[in-house]
Specification:
The complex is a heterodimer of chains A (114) and B (110). Chain A is built from no helices and ten strands. Chain A is mostly beta strands and 114 residues long. Chain A is globular and about 35 Å long. Chain B has 110 residues and is mostly beta strands. The chains are: A mainly beta (114), B mainly beta (110).
């Protein structure tokens, strides 16, 4: 597709369940980012993939959060044993090379943990 | 660690007023600097960028100059419009990783 695609657009889950959020970056983009935006808050960095390098996971808030990127393209963010404080909009972005290049954002997945 | 400090919002202006949104950052070296904008109901999009010291990024009447001496990248517009109402985010790119400020909400009244 022409832009970054995220699915689902909305997800409601019960506390304690696992969820998977998917991101399809722009074709050919080597860099992929995940961010979290809570109500009234800024964007919190979660994880950054660049090509074949080891991902920068420094923003993951706990070991319940993990992400992978298969074949240098599609990425999945997994949250295990969800908690209410995980409720937020999860944003994915991709860029051509990472450093110095524009990041293009998806519309996000709104996660609600009840 | 790296961090970004933006002017707190919300900022409310009348149409045709002058806008400044301050942004300062801490980083090692000289990161590329970006301003992103989020219009109501829309996704984040790039507004402008500057990749080296003294560069000026500009778009849609907005400008920001990369000031390495003060580690700042303040956003300015000479005459705002109602359609500029949005949330604005300052973001240095440090080693490929974009670090966002908390965002500044701008509301422009007719």
């Amino acid at each position: 597709g022409a832009g970054v695609s995220q699915s689902p657009s909305n997800k409601v889950t019960e506390k304690g369940k696992d969820v998977e959020l998917r991101c399809d970056p722009i074709s050919g983009h080597t860099a992929l980012y995940w961010y979290r935006q809570s109500l009234g808050q800024g964007l919190e960095f979660l994880i950054y993939f660049q090509g074949n390098s080891a991902p920068d996971k420094s923003g993951l808030p706990s070991d319940r959060f993990s992400a992978e990127r298969t074949g240098g393209s599609v990425s999945t963010l997994t949250i295990q044993r969800t908690q209410q404080e995980d409720s937020a909009v999860y944003l994915c972005a991709s860029s051509l090379e990472g450093y110095g290049t524009e990041a293009f954002f998806g519309q996000g997945t709104r996660l609600t943990v009840v | 660690g790296n961090s970004v400090t933006q002017m707190e919002g919300p900022v409310t202006l009348s149409e045709e007023a002058f806008l400044t949104i301050n942004c300062t950052y801490t980083a090692t070296g000289y990161p590329s600097l970006f301003w992103y904008v989020q219009y109501p109901g829309e996704g984040l999009q790039l507004l402008l960028k500057a990749t080296k010291a003294d560069d000026k990024g500009s778009n849609k009447g907005f400008e920001a100059t990369y000031r390495k001496e003060t580690t700042s990248f303040h956003l300015e517009k000479g005459s705002v419009q109602v359609s500029d109402s949005a949330v604005y985010f300052c973001a240095p790119n440090q080693g490929g990783k974009l670090i966002f400020g908390q965002g500044t909400e701008l509301s422009v009244k007719p």
